[in-house]
Amino acid sequence: MSAQDDITKPRIAADGSFARPESSFRNFIEKGGRFEPEKGRYHLYIALVCPWATRTLIVRKLKGLEDFISVSVASPRKDDDGWPFATVDGDFPGTEADPLYNYGHTKDLYIRADPNFSGRYTVPILWDKKLHTIVNNESSEIIRIFNSAFNDLLPSEYAKVDLYPEHLRKEIDEINDWVYTDINNGVYRSGFATTQQAYEDAVKSVFSGLDKVEKILQGDKKFLVGNQLTEADVRLWVTTIRFDVAYHGIFKCNIKNIRHGYPAINGWMKTLYWNYDPFKSSTDFYHIKAGYYSTATWINPTKIYPVGPIPDIEPL
Ligand SMILES: N[C@@H](CCC(=O)N[C@@H](CS)C(=O)NCC(=O)O)C(=O)O
């Protein structure tokens, strides 16, 4: 079996660099469409180790969609069939069963949605309980769906929360673009590289991205774009909160850490964690640490995960 066929290993190009595959289900929820906005119709499958899945969890809470969209948390100990549910890995604390089909893995959901599916069994998965299929498995699109698709059904205090406001879209798109390349995906390119050169190129771009963010947030700026919380904050935050506890170690992103090397990013990150419940309550440091250190077994075959840093995140 080649690394390309092995679900437990990332896809590596000939030059040793990691290239993330495109997500495969890209539908939207909209009035008059195949997937209508309805309370209780959709379900979100996630793993708390995963930054992409955590984006969707945070936005679900920021938009007050808890009663609209149910959630299941898979175990962070991914195996050949994807992310396991409690029937398979119930020993891992916080792992939930699949409430819809009692499936064992995310693979079963992908095969149910498309019996010929040959991609990766990734989370997040936004699932339609009515048509028994996947609506969307791309986090950047799921958070846009959550931001607007249910607004007509939501109380006004939540309908008016807009993480992608018209007047800031250009700036948000621009920042998302390089934050994704250099930081969100950059940490994976650093960690999954199989040549020295690919690693060094990736790790340098991670830190030049962080340097750029540090400049933007200097002077106690509360948010990345404008004076309000936007999806740009959510998308960057999920990576920074995993940085000191996981990427610094297992992905060798260790030129600096956030807590000592980036005071402005650290302040912004801590404020969102401690003062905004959707961020804190979507974060589980045990799932994050144990998940990265036990899943990337070609990097860490013993699956031992680190005790530090202590604390996982500093107080305000
Ligand atoms: N582009 C996707 C990426 C999702 C993704 O790669 N999730 C990872 C977990 S952090 C996963 O499930 N990987 C399983 C695999 O690649 O086998 C998104 O943003 O939703």
Automatic annotation (TrEMBL):
<feature type="domain" description="GST C-terminal">
    <location>
        <begin position="165"/>
        <end position="310"/>
    </location>
</feature>
<dbReference type="InterPro" id="IPR010987">
    <property type="entry name" value="Glutathione-S-Trfase_C-like"/>
</dbReference>
<dbReference type="InterPro" id="IPR036282">
    <property type="entry name" value="Glutathione-S-Trfase_C_sf"/>
</dbReference>
<dbReference type="Pfam" id="PF13409">
    <property type="entry name" value="GST_N_2"/>
</dbReference>
<dbReference type="InterPro" id="IPR040079">
    <property type="entry name" value="Glutathione_S-Trfase"/>
</dbReference>
<protein>
    <submittedName>
        <fullName>S-glutathionyl-(Chloro)hydroquinone reductase</fullName>
        <ecNumber>1.8.5.7</ecNumber>
    </submittedName>
</protein>
<dbReference type="Pfam" id="PF13410">
    <property type="entry name" value="GST_C_2"/>
</dbReference>
<keyword id="KW-0560">Oxidoreductase</keyword>
<dbReference type="InterPro" id="IPR004045">
    <property type="entry name" value="Glutathione_S-Trfase_N"/>
</dbReference>
<dbReference type="GO" id="GO:0016491">
    <property type="term" value="F:oxidoreductase activity"/>
</dbReference>
<dbReference type="InterPro" id="IPR036249">
    <property type="entry name" value="Thioredoxin-like_sf"/>
</dbReference>
<dbReference type="InterPro" id="IPR016639">
    <property type="entry name" value="GST_Omega/GSH"/>
</dbReference>
<dbReference type="InterPro" id="IPR047047">
    <property type="entry name" value="GST_Omega-like_C"/>
</dbReference>
